[in-house]
Amino acid sequence: MWALESSILGAANNSIKICEGSASPKYCKYWWTKACHDATRAKKKAFNRYKRHLGDIDLWIDYKKARAVQRKIIVEARAESWNKYVESINSRTTSADVWRKVKSINGSTAFSHVALKINDKVVVDNAEIADIFAVQFSRASNGIYNNHDFNTLKVASEKIPIIFSDNNDHWYNRSLEYRELDRALKSCNSKTPGPDFIPFDFLINMSDNQKMQLLQFYNYIWNTGLPHQWRECIIFPLLKPGKSSADPLSYRPIALTNCMCKVLEKIINWRLQAFLEHNILVTPCQSGFRAGHSTMDALTRLESAVRECLIRDDFCVAVFLDIASAFDKVWHYGLLMKIKQMGLEGNLPRFVQKILSMRKLAVRVNGHVSERYPVHSGTPQGSIISPTLFSIMINDIFDSCPAGVHYSLYADDGAFWTSGASLLDCLTLLQDVLDSVQNWSGLWGLEVAPAKTKAIIFTRKRKYNPITLSICNNSIEYVSSFKFLGMVLDKKLSWNFHIAKLKEKCQKDLRLLAIVASNRWGANFSTLKRLYIGLTRPKLEYGGFLLETASISNLKILDRIQYAAVRTMLGALRCTNTKILESEANIMPLALRRKLFLVKYACRTLSIPNHPVANITKNYYHFGFFQDSNQELPSVGRIYCQFVNLQLKYNQIATVPVECRYVTYCVPCYFSLCKNKKSDLDANGWCALFGDLRDSDYSDRIDVYCDGSVRGGVAGCGVWSSSFCIKSRLADDSSIFTAELYAIYYTLQFIRDKVGIFVVFSDSYSALCALSSFKVSNNYLVSRIRELLLNLGSSKVVIEWIPSHMGIHGNDNADALARESLALPYLGNAFLPLDDIYRHMYKHYLELWQQQWSASGLPYRSMKPVLCDTVPAHLSRSHQKVFTRLRLGVCLLTHGHHFTKSVRAECAACCCRMTIGHLLVDCPALSKLREPLMQKCISLKTTLTVQRLLDGEFPQDMLMHFLKVTGFIDKI
Predict the structure, then answer these.
(1) Would you state the pLDDT for residue 392?
(2) What is the DSSP string of 527-557?
(3) Locate the RNase H type-1 domain: which residues (predicted)?
(4) Model confidence at 107, in pLDDT bands (50, 70, 90)?
(5) pLDDT computed for residue 274 by the predictor
(6) CA–CA distance, 231 with 219 (Å, rounded to integer)
(7) Which of 130, 442, 628, 707 could connect to 370 by a Cys-Cys bridge, CB 3.0–4.6 Å?
(8) Cβ atoms within 10 A of the Cβ of 487, count?
(9) Which has the closest alpha carbon to 315: 218, 428, 219?
(10) How does pLDDT run across 840-867, given as a tens digit for each residue?
(11) Ramachandran region, residue 431 (left: φ > 0; alpha: ψ -120 to 50; beta: rest)
(12) Is the dihedral of CA 116, 122, 125, 130 positive or negative?
């Protein structure tokens, strides 16, 4: 191991310079480049030369030029750094991350120093602080529990060691493969390295030979055991939001483990998850750390239950569990016992056993590392496999729930609820669940925190007398609102508290947007739009389809947040009509996006077998009487309505086994002809090359050619061989990618029972790449074709790529069959993959938005009849604001009096009200300056009108020049 690490670090040291020392807060500018350094040096050199010859005007001019060049280069460096960062922003980026980046570009990076207060004594020594944190974090995982009975059970149980058999015959114990390593490395993000100082980037950029050596090393560990160095981690204390920095309990541990270990854990974790899903060992109501599941699963189920209860005027009571120090208190022996009961044996469970044993931690504070302390309980901090292990531990917590009680799990966030006309009956059932949870806690050591466990009674009734719920001899508090999985639920499900919190959170993002818009390095429309889409809009859309039942006034609060963001992006004035802001920025209204996300979420859940939300969605017809109610429908009811509008049925959504989202297999897909570019050879050359390939490699196989065709939204596929041919019409709105996959799928299905060995030729490079990729796919066609290929084996069939439209006889015949299939009737037996369904949905709601826009009757509609991107990207920020304000018809020249409370501006030459049309077209005093615009319109064979000047096709630079020479550009 040491030799491998030394070779990686040695190669890195020879290629990459190691930074020395730490950056000063004054000079900590992450955007600084060599060009900035050279320009600054040239400026200082010019200034020093001038100081030695004071009064020399030429040297002074040289200095001014050098200073101007330096300023320009610095602005460009800041802009380039910012634009690269903006491209990496996604829905997981926090506002705090963006604020830190903005401050770093402005040169105001903050350096924090930790100071603790222990027993009225202030501790500032970093080494002492590190030891205090290390003792605290180690004590949290010391393996000692508050339950005396459980401690007795623990001691008695651990006298019998858990031994896993040496049977490695199962698929999950096979040797690690290169495709798994490649997939694991591609999924890694550049993070801070662990104690070995090897970041992911070093591993990702290794050569193929080095990766093979790394794979051999991993297989050695897989069969022998985990190195002791990989059982140690470095902890960084991170202050919790809103907590006192002087209290050690206000910090949460953030662990840094070896990146080489994390890559290995990724591979093993995928195998473990695939085993759990394939054998249906995970409770369907567990949504945490599972592919295709999310926090929306629990929230949707609870919202539907509460909404149905409110429509019936019944009671729905929910209890939200809080498990104290959940991840830190996992009993290692109990976890291994559950793993053994699941039937795991061989290398995989032994790897888990080794990764849990003899763990140690140390804390680093400002470069000072504490002593190492042992860890006796809990899942490993910073480990990839930890969430899966915790899910196994908590999997059966609600197994004893009585009928009529529903529950959900998302990691350690648990909730259970029941509905009924009698509040007493509901609470009695919930108390039974609490008793069973308490018994479970006594068996497995995870303790419920009664003070943080809350209950809500959802009802429209004002008077009711609930009995006390209790756990561990402590009563549970009834609350009127509770934050569950990021959404604040209130007892009437009005979403008032949630939207108020959301507004407060988004105000910070709007201030950030305004600050960025005011800087020269970040102020352009595309950057601001990307910042809003990646940072603010995900907050508005998280659980957005659940918020559809909120009041109109509450939904307008969310709309105003988007309006404010769009105004900042465009540089529009506050008095601009809100209805035209979104159309100008080409940002879909939130109301339509909520409906879009509702049906997309429904399709995703319907594609997963045994998904709890899919089950209640399919059974919605039992509650058809809700349609007659004045109350808002539950989310499953709204899903039903939207599916009707889309003319989509639940059984048209194909399912993909969850285990297919974790593991992939090598399939016989080859690209022998890809060594040459398609443009390198003519048709005769390709035919000759193909003939050589067929004669040399596939002379003993039967040729089969397949192709897909799409025209005008109609799709079909064709298969041709010398002994048979197939043509089939596919569902409308199928993509060409889907058509090509169906051609391969039908081919494999047909030859499955035929005698002989085959080679399938396809001209779809993208389809074959998807099939042979090491990445998992949620496309059901890809998963089914892979399954067919694995079952048939390469001895039966292989797939080979060939170029299209190059005169290859079989390929031309398959192409002709595919085109002929477009005239066939669709029999309804070819389901659309999710990507095609999503595209169809987006198109539907885009058309709905276009219909609403066309029917709005606003004057601006003539300026933009079709919704599309119209903001010019090549203009500077100042000119873009001017152009946009003119298009919107609201500028300071025409509406500035609303802000200054003065008289509306008039044209001094014409003594009439100043309007945009008067300025650009009608004012005779500006006719001479307007001549270039007139000449350009004549050359374009059009008339000079406001709409023509601002339609986006007319040269904006000429328009800006006209406004500049007339002196009005600063008055817009």
Answers:
(1) 95
(2) HHHHHIIIIIHHHHHTTGGGGGGS-HHHHHH
(3) 698-823
(4) low
(5) 92
(6) 18
(7) 130
(8) 21
(9) 428
(10) 999 999 999 999 999 988 888 888 888 8
(11) alpha
(12) negative
DSSP state of 385: S
Burial (0-12, 13-18, 19+ Cβ within 10 Å), 520: middle
**Residue 85 — very low, low, confident or very high, per pLDDT cuts 50/70/90?**
confident
Q: Return the number of other C-beta atoms located less than 10 Å from residue 691's C-beta.
A: 11
Q: Which two tokens stand for residue 510?
A: 């709007």
* pTM for the model: 0.89
248: number of CA atoms within 13 Å, CB side? 24
**Can you say whether residue 901 is alpha, beta or left, with left for phi > 0 and alpha for psi between -120 and 50 degrees?**
left
Q: Say whether 161 sits in a helix, a strand or coil.
A: coil
- Evaluate whether 377 touches 332 at the Cβ level (below 8 Å): yes
> Which residues touch 291 (CB under 8 Å, ≥6 apart)?
273, 658, 661, 662, 776
The identity of residue 546, as a single letter, is L
Rounded to whole angstroms, how far apart are CA atoms 381 and 194?
Answer: 12
Is residue 204 within 8 Å of 378, Cβ to Cβ? no
Q: Are 141 and 376 a contacting pair, CB within 8 Å?
A: yes
List C-alpha distances in Å: 158 to 155, 161, 163: 5, 6, 12
Q: d(Cα 73, Cα 854) in Å, to the nearest integer?
A: 46
pLDDT in the model for residue 86: 72
- Whole-angstrom Cα distance, residue 496 to residue 480? 12
User: For residue range 334-345, what is the model confidence (pLDDT) as tens digits?
Assistant: 999 999 999 999
Tokens 């090491």, residue located: 774
Is the dihedral angle over the CA atoms 960, 963, 965, 969 positive or is it negative?
Answer: negative
